[in-house]
Amino acid sequence: MRFAAVALIVASAISAGTTGAAWSQSAAHPAPAATPAPSATPSPAKSTCANPDALGISRVVQIDTTGGPGFGFEHFKQLDFLRDKEVVLTFDDGPWPGNTPAVLKALADQCTTGIFFSIGKHATYHPEILKQVAAAGHTIGAHTWSHANLNGKKMTEALAKDEIEKGFSAVKWALGTAPSPFFRFPALQHPPAMVTYLGTRNIAMFSCDIDSFDFKSKNSQQVIDTVMTKLDKLGKGIILMHDFQKHTAEALPELLRRLKAGGYKVVKMQAKAPVETIAQYDEELLKNVKLPTVSNRPLSSVVQTISE
User: Fold this and answer.
1) Which residues contact 150 (CB under 8 A, 6 or more apart)?
2) Exposed (0-12), middle (13-18) or buried (19+): which is 295, by Cβ within 10 Å?
């Protein structure tokens, strides 16, 4: 498939290891996001990194997703924008308690960043964690509603479209604002009809260059060894990991230190504009999903001291 031309614009250049974003996680239940701005989820203000030896961010690139460009040489060969020794860190299947916050801490400690491809259901289960991902300045995309294989034998085009669109609407609901038009197919299964469909929706597709296979790993060291062996061979690439996996959360601090020691630099990818969700799916989500409720009653009517 031929994709429309894509502009990769260097939004800023930050010296790796010396400067970066000193991010911290938000409160467990942050306030809902304000009305979406006419651009992708913004990054926090840049400041001097608290860690003088941090991995940091080497540069930021802005992606024009018109026509549905594809990234990651495992499936898409056209757009080779990474320079030697550059990597993009990506995480699938979150948000998830324990593991996602641990991944966020490891990234914050190294003043660096990643792309989080959230499962829609998980976003509705844990919106407060996904808000922490956004507050820390990471890019957020979608990974379907339920992690269904869109190339499955019983998967019709209509059902596949539902999985994609409901996933984006769920992530939007959880964040309170539209995420980036970035999408990764579950199991990296790319049915041609859905590749074409995402092109019409102006949603960028992500495969990978380096699969950590962390979901198969027996321990955190195996995750590190798999990534570094492949990376040292290729010299650069988009790395696929899962913030849903415990071993990944455990491996990440050391993996980031290994990347720094190996002279690798992290590139942040952000979208030129947020995804435009479809109103029908936004409305259906609100009707059908059992969303969390929050009481607006004053403290005095909820908690009363009856004995001291």
Assistant:
1) 144, 160, 163, 164, 185, 186, 189, 191, 194
2) exposed
Question: How far is Cα 73 from Cα 79, in angstroms, rounded to an integer?
Answer: 8
Task: Report how far residue 278's alpha carbon sits from residue 174's, in angstroms, rounded to the nearest whole number.
Answer: 16
State whether the Cα torsion 177-178-180-185 is positive or negative: positive
Q: Which of 96, 94, 104, 99 is nearest to 26 (CA)?
A: 104
Residue-wise pLDDT for 268-289, tens only, equals 999 999 999 999 999 998 887 6
**Residues in Cβ contact with 1 at an 8 Å cutoff, skipping those fewer than 6 apart:** 192, 195, 196, 199
Q: Under a CB-based contact definition with an 8 Å cutoff, are residues 78 and 55 in contact?
A: no
Level-2 CATH architecture, domain 8-18+49-291: Alpha-Beta Barrel (3.20)
237-242 and 86-92: which strand pairing? parallel
Other CB atoms closer than 10 Å to residue 89's CB: what's the count? 26
CA 160 to chain centre: 21
H or E element that contains 81: none
Measure the CA–CA gap between 98 and 108, rounded to whole angstroms: 15
Query: What is the C-alpha separation between 238 and 97, in angstroms, rounded?
Result: 25
For 231-255, what is each residue's pLDDT tens digit? Answer: 999 999 999 999 999 999 999 999 9
163, 281 Cβ separation under 8 angstroms:
no
More confident: 230 or 11: 230
> 22-31, 61-70, 295-304: which has the highest mean pLDDT?
61-70
Pairing mode, if any, of strands 8-13 and 59-63?
Answer: antiparallel
Q: Which residue has the tokens 């829609």?
A: 120
Residue 81 CA to residue 87 CA, distance in Å, equals 11
